[in-house]
Specification:
Rossmann fold; 18 helices; alpha/beta; single chain; 44% helix; 418 residues; 2 domains; 15 strands; 8-stranded mixed sheet; 7-stranded parallel sheet
């Protein structure tokens, strides 16, 4: 076992958090119990690059119970829970290379520490591990079977790689599963992003003008939760269909130039860079709060804010206040990184239960069908989505109707009309 973590003495604290998560992730626990005897991942290395949270810990424990050797790094410099990393090393004897607050060079050193294990399977969140793997594929890629990708940004990056015909192994787009993006992205980010903002600032959301940049699954969840807390919500978009959906859902739709004049709190959720730049900042109110819920810290141009500021200070652990040359103050949460993980604990365990069940079953599928996949990006099979949804409903004690033979026949034939 190899590892690089901050402080192994934090393990007891982390273990308690992991136990709490396990109690709220019944689908993943059922899969762990199902596969712990047969161990379909025996003698295989799973190299992961995901946020090191209590929920991720439950996934790594499930993979290990199925026989896998684990090598893991964080996928964002500020998203690792050091106590969770400590518990995984001390209590589970897993190889973890992650700590909160790493530099860019340290971040990539941790990724390469994972690659040195020559993974059979990669599990990624944002595609940094997968992209670095491709750069050194001749060195570390001798065992690779396939990989998975957890988030929208990562899927977009890998689709761009696929278009160049340079994708070197099959990838399952876990993010695109209905039981992932319709729940994790919408309800998970919707709640946890607001949770992070409130923990970092303790501001009252009610009565605020909240600007949500992007109305995909993530933005939809954030806008809904902000409205539920009493905010007036303005949505900015570049996609006409998403903009129309936002308007039909009852939100104001405007350009960022227009929204910059009226917003009190801005939350970016686009997966693109330069969503908020200097020309927007100079129009904003004194005391405005900026937060990002996208995977990378490129949506808010911190570089331009620095260039416009005459001074800055940290008003607390997760909020940096910039004083602009016109004396207006701009408050940025978590360096413009993922607000729900920098300033809070990420998504609730209940919703990550489904996302990580998809991760686990996708790994099993890749292993069971080794050699049958081409070097392409694959969507989750609908049967897997339905299985996970059914297990989740069962765990919640919810029963649903089933089609009768007559109904099945009616839906499968074309003869019966008016």
């Amino acid at each position: 076992m190899e590892y690089r973590i901050k402080d192994i003495s934090l393990a007891d604290k982390g273990k308690k958090k992991i136990e709490w998560a396990e109690a709220n992730m019944p689908v993943l626990l059922s899969l762990k119990n199902k596969f712990k005897e047969s161990k379909p991942l025996k003698d295989l290395v799973v190299g992961g690059c995901l946020h090191v949270t209590k929920e991720t810990a439950v996934l790594t424990k499930t993979l290990a119970a199925a026989g896998a050797t684990i090598a893991w790094s964080g996928c964002n410099p500020l998203s690792t829970s050091d106590d969770i990393a400590a518990s995984l090393v001390k209590d589970e004897e897993l190889s973890v290379f992650a700590s909160r607050g790493v530099s860019t060079s340290e971040y990539y050193e941790d990724i390469y520490s994972v690659l040195k294990f020559n993974p059979d399977i990669t599990i990624d969140d944002g595609a940094d591990l997968t992209i670095e793997f491709h750069k050194t594929f001749d060195k570390y890629g001798k065992n690779i079977i396939g990989g998975t990708e957890e988030t929208t940004t990562g899927v977009l990056r890998l689709k761009a790689l696929e278009k160049t015909s340079k994708l070197s192994y099959p990838i399952v787009a876990v993010n695109d599963a209905e039981t992932k993006h319709d729940f994790d992205n919408v309800y998970g980010t919707g709640q946890s992003a607001l949770d992070g903002i409130i923990r970092a600032t303790n501001v009252l959301i009610a009565g605020k003008s909240v600007v949500v940049a992007g109305y995909g699954h993530v933005g939809k969840g954030i806008a809904s939760r902000a409205r539920g807390l009493g905010a007036s919500v303005i949505v900015t978009e570049i996609d006409p269909i998403n903009a129309l959906k936002a308007r039909m859902d009852g939100f104001i739709v405007a350009t960022m130039d227009e929204a910059a004049l009226i917003g009190d709190l801005f939350i970016t959720s686009t997966g693109c860079k330069d969503v908020i730049v200097g020309s927007h900042i100079e129009k904003m109110k004194n005391g405005v709060i900026l937060a990002n819920a996208g995977h990378f810290n490129v949506e808010i141009s911190i570089e331009e804010i620095n260039g416009m500021a005459k001074s800055s200070k940290h008003v607390n652990e997760n909020v940096e206040q910039f004083v602009l040359k016109n004396d207006a103050k701009v408050n940025v949460i978590g360096e413009g990184r993922l607000v729900n993980l920098v300033a809070a604990e990420g998504h609730p365990s209940e919703v990550m239960d489904m996302s990580f069940a998809n991760q686990f079953l996708s790994v099993i599928n890749l292993v069971n069908n080794k050699g049958k996949f081409e070097n392409k990006i694959y969507e989750i099979d609908r049967d897997q989505d339905l299985l996970i949804a059914g297990l989740k409903l069962e765990a919640m004690g919810i029963k649903i109707d089933k089609l009768s033979e007559v109904q099945n026949k009616y839906l499968s034939e074309y003869g019966e009309g008016t």
